Amino acid sequence: MTTTGARARPLAPEDRREMIIEAVIPLILEQGVGITSRQIAEAAGVAEGTIFRAFGDKDTLIAAAADAFLERGARTVSAPLIDPTLELDEKLEILVDLMRHRVRDVMRMAMLTGRRGPTPSTEQLEHFNRMIAEVFARDAHRLRVSPERLGQYVRALAIASSIPVGGPELSDTELVELITHGILVSPE
């Protein structure tokens, strides 16, 4: 009795390259550029030879993954999916956390690979601010700034707080406190 296993339909070369790139991005961020071709192959679920056929060498793959990661960040500057019905502090903490992680990942990828992505365009940043405004629209009456401006504040704080300056790191909660209450005590 002969049995034949069903073989998966082969991917188009560009789809295979994209799949490998998507698998290697978190690997680079976690372990750096010293990752092995075996680790890459395992993460992508392919044979090592597939990596070399698709990219030629590991350095070319790492450069392609870094470029894709950095390009995607600039191209898709958008508000994360945050439930607008959450409490204001909860939405802010989610936004701050997600933005700080993204900034740190971009900085890490750039540092590890020596590559730099494109700067988001004015239109992309305005789009981001509009999306933030939609998330925080129901809180507008509680804000001293417009919900659109809030996006700029959070982006600036996320970038600034991701750069080590010595001393204890500010937590997401501390940044939300700064955004919502400032540094002055309330007058009695």
Number of H/I helices: 8
- Beta-strand residue fraction: under 5%
Number of strands: 0
Helix content: 55-70%
Task: Describe the fold and architecture.
The chain is mostly helical. 63% of the residues lie in helices and 0% in strands. It contains eight helices and no strands. It has helices spanning 13-31, 37-44, 48-55, 58-75, 88-113, 122-136, 147-161, 172-181. Helix 1 packs across helix 2, helix 4 runs antiparallel to helix 5 (88-113) and helix 5 (88-113) packs across helix 7 (147-161). The protein is elongated, with a radius of gyration of 21 Å. The chain starts with 12 loop residues before the first helix and ends in a 7-residue tail after the last helix.
Set down the secondary structure blueprint.
Elements: H1 13-31, H2 37-44, H3 48-55, H4 58-75, H5 88-113, H6 122-136, H7 147-161, H8 172-181
Helix pairs in contact: 1-2, 1-4, 4-5, 5-7, 5-8, 6-7
Q: What's this entry about, in short?
A:
By secondary structure, the protein is mostly helical.
Notable traits:
188 residues; mainly alpha; 8 helices; 0% strand; elongated
